[in-house]
Amino acid sequence: MLKVEHIGIAVKSLETSIPVYEKLLNTPCYKQEPVASENVVTAFFQTGENKIELLEATAPESAIAKFLEKKGEGIHHIAFDVADIYAEMDRLRSEGFVLLNETPKKGADNKLICFVHPKNTHGVLIEICQEIR
Ligand code: CMX
Q1: 67 Cα: distance to centroid of ligand 1 (angstroms)
Q2: What pTM was estimated for this model as a whole?
């Protein structure tokens, strides 16, 4: 894995959390983007070579809605940049990790993404992502 690409934070409302993170990070939110397949809307901030992604649920069946109900607002996932997501998925599978999708999905911010189940990673939801070139 190349680097931490972003940290995903589950929030109840982008409207109220974006101004807080703009003040905290001292940088404007550069993009808001819905991901219809995940029932979320995202907001991104660049912090050096890494990003912060705020995630708001758009439907009760969204993973973010479930997470907020169970755990409340907070860090939802850590995403790692990979050079070849197909090769990395094969490697993780062969190491015994449970992947949450068979093939990469289209995520926010021009990425192919795949999640690793938090039960295999000591309670942390891990995403791997690759820029769509
Ligand atoms: N981090 C750590 N643990 C998590 C978690 C998270 N983000 N989300 C769920 N869990 C834990 C729950 O606490 C629960 O633990 P216990 O069994 O100890 O209570 C367990 O996982 C099962 O949780 P659940 O609420 O019953 O939810 P599901 O099993 O239905 O789904 C998961 C859990 C991880 C499979 C699902 O959230 C998922 O598929 N996530 C990947 C997709 C996603 O998160 N999309 C939103 C972001 C999209 C984006 O970034 O664009």
Answers
A1: 6
A2: 0.96
